[in-house]
Specification:
Blueprint: E1 20-21, H1 45-53, H2 57-70, H3 75-87, H4 91-104, H5 109-121, H6 125-138, E2 140-141, H7 145-160, H8 164-177, H9 181-191, H10 206-220, H11 224-237, H12 244-252, H13 257-270, H14 275-287, H15 291-304, H16 309-321, H17 325-338, H18 343-355, H19 359-375
Helix pairs in contact: 1-2, 2-3, 3-4, 3-5, 4-5, 5-6, 5-7, 6-7, 7-8, 7-9, 8-9, 9-10, 10-11, 11-12, 12-13, 13-14, 14-15, 14-16, 15-16, 16-17, 17-18, 18-19
C-alpha cells in the first residue's frame, strides 16, 4: 500500500478542469470551498484549527465534531472531521463525514477522492470506483501524496473489477511520476489479467507478477528492447501461464506484427475463449487484408460475448469486408447500442451504409464521427473482457 504521507487544506482546492494540476500551498484558502457566513461558523472553529495545526488531532477532531453538530452546513468542518478520521483509521466516520461534505461542495474533486478512499477502506469498492473516477475526471492536484494514494486505490479497484487496461493505464502514470514496488506489482496483475487485490498474490506467482509488471513499466518508459527481452524470457519460462503470450503478442503487434500474431495464436491454443486475444487478432487480420480469417475469429468472439462492444464491432466490420453488408450493419448497429459515443462505430457504420447505398444515413454517421472525434472519447477501443 502506498503510504499516505500528508493532508493539507490545499487539497480541497483541486481544479474542476483537467486531470492533474499543480498543488496549491497548504496555507491558501481552498478555492473550491464557498465562503461561509460568520454566523454559521461554530465558535470553537478557530480553536479546533489551532489544535489541528499543533498536531493535537484527538482534541481537534472532538471540537470539529461538536462544530458540525451545531452547524450541519459547515463544509470545512465536515472536511476536517472526515480527513482527521481517515488519519486515525476511523473509516466509517470518515465516509459519513465526507458524504456530508460532498453534498455541500458538489464540485470538490478532493472531497470525492477522499470519500472514495474511505469507501475503499470500508469495502464499498463499486462506490469507491465511481467516486475516484469522477474525481480524476474533475481534476486532482499533481504531485500530492493524497492524489497518488487515490489513483493507486482506483487502479486497485479497476483491476479487481476486471478493467485491466484501465488499471494498467493508471499504473503507467503513477510509475512515470515515481517508481514503486506496489505499482509494479499492480501493473503485473493487470497485464496478467488477474482480478485480485495485491495482498491476494500467491507466493508461487510473485516472481511472474513482478517481472511482468517490470516489463510493462519498461514498455511505458519506451525501453522497448528491454521490455521485449523480458517478455520473451517470460514466455520461455512460463509457456503455459495464462496471458503471458497475450501480453507479449499485444506488445509486438505494433512493431513486429507477424511475431505478434504468432503469440496471440499461441495464447488461443492455451485458451480458445481468450476474448482480448480474439479481438486483437481479428483487428490485425482486418488491417492486413485477411477478412475471411478475421471473420472466423470475430464471429467466435461476438457469439461468446454478445454484450462486448469491441467484439460486436469487429464482427460487423468483418461481415462488411466479406461482402455481407446488411448483416454487418446489423452487428454494427448493435455495437453502437453498447457504446453510443464510440467514434469508431459511427465511422464503420458510415462506410457500411455507403456500401448499402443508404446515403443519408452514411452522411449522418460521418457527421457524428467527426463531432465525436473532436469532442468525444479517444479512438482507443474499450477493453475486451
Amino acid at each position: 500500500m502506498i503510504v499516505l504521507c500528508a493532508l493539507g487544506l490545499a487539497w480541497q482546492a483541486a481544479p474542476a478542469a483537467g486531470k492533474l494540476a499543480t498543488p496549491r500551498p497548504v496555507a491558501e484558502k481552498p478555492a473550491a470551498v464557498k465562503p461561509v457566513a460568520v454566523s454559521s461558523v461554530p465558535p470553537m472553529a478557530a480553536q479546533a484549527e489551532r489544535l489541528r495545526r499543533a498536531g493535537q488531532l484527538d482534541e481537534a477532531l472532538k471540537l470539529y465534531r461538536q462544530g458540525v453538530a451545531v452547524a450541519p452546513r459547515w463544509a470545512d468542518g465536515w472536511w476536517s472531521v472526515g480527513t482527521l478520521s481517515y488519519l486515525k483509521g476511523q473509516y466509517p466516520a470518515c465516509r459519513d463525514a465526507l458524504q456530508r461534505y460532498v453534498a455541500l461542495e458538489t464540485n470538490s474533486s478532493a472531497g470525492l477522492a477522499f470519500l472514495g478512499l474511505c469507501q475503499f477502506e470500508t469495502g464499498q469498492f463499486d462506490a469507491a470506483l465511481r467516486g475516484l473516477e469522477k474525481a480524476y475526471a474533475m481534476g486532482l492536484p499533481a504531485g500530492d501524496p493524497v492524489t497518488r494514494e487515490a489513483l493507486y486505490k482506483l487502479a486497485v479497484v479497476q483491476n479487481k473489477s476486471g478493467n485491466f487496461e484501465r488499471a494498467l493505464q493508471i499504473c503507467t502514470g503513477l510509475h512515470r511520476e515515481k517508481e514503486s514496488i506496489e505499482v509494479v506489482a499492480l501493473a503485473g496483475l493487470a497485464a496478467l489479467r488477474k482480478p485480485i487485490f495485491p495482498q491476494e498474490m500467491s507466493s508461487d506467482d510473485r516472481e511472474l507478477i513482478f517481472k511482468m509488471g517490470r516489463a510493462m513499466m519498461l514498455a511505458a518508459d519506451r525501453h522497448a528492447a528491454e521490455a521485449g527481452k523480458l517478455l520473451a524470457e517470460l514466455v520461455e519460462s512460463y509457456p503455459k501461464a495464462p496471458n503471458v503470450n497475450y501480453a507479449y503478442g499485444a506488445f509486438l503487434i505494433a512493431t513486429e506484427a507477424d511475431r505478434g500474431l504468432d503469440e496471440l495464436r499461441a495464447e488461443l491454443k492455451l485458451d480458445p475463449h481468450h476474448l482480448p486475444a480474439q479481438v486483437t487478432l481479428a483487428d490485425e487480420l482486418l488491417k492486413r487484408g485477411h477478412p475471411a480469417e478475421a471473420l472466423t475469429v470475430a464471429e467466435h468472439a461476438a457469439k461468446q460475448a454478445p454484450r462486448n462492444f469491441p467484439a460486436r464491432a469487429l464482427y460487423g466490420r468483418a461481415l462488411v469486408e466479406n461482402g455481407q453488408v446488411q448483416p454487418g450493419i446489423v452487428e454494427l448497429e448493435q455495437a453502437l447500442k453498447l457504446a453510443p459515443d464510440s467514434p469508431q462505430v459511427h465511422f464503420f457504420l458510415a462506410s457500411a451504409y455507403g456500401k448499402a447505398g443508404r446515403k443519408e444515413e452514411a452522411a449522418r454517421e460521418r457527421e457524428r464521427f467527426l463531432k465525436l472525434k473532436q469532442t468525444g472519447p479517444a479512438l482507443a477501443a474499450p477493453e475486451a473482457k
